[in-house]
Amino acid sequence: MRRLLPLILLAGCAIGPNLESRLAASIGQSELQLVEGFGVPNRTYETGGLRFLQYEERRQVMHQLDPYWGYPYGRFAPYSVAGPVLLTRSCDITFILKEGRVQSFTTRGDDCR
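^ that's the sequence the OP posted. Answer follows.
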């Protein structure tokens, strides 16, 4: 996944299917196929006959603040200083497997496109 997730996230900038549509293709795949395509997951967990495989992606982006509006925090930001701010963007994808096959997935984060 460490190899593939950045490509999946960057593909969100292009015109085409969204992340959820692209990940839907993994439904029904075996765990082996999932790991072959996405790499070794960051975390795994098993409970109640289900297996959860979580992939994480973090990236940092620099934003320039507007001196008046305090972008991206709004007009009433606690400070009104112009200058760059470093933001961390994230996207966590969790695949839920039952009997060794992907049943569903969830996404969480501010960079899941």
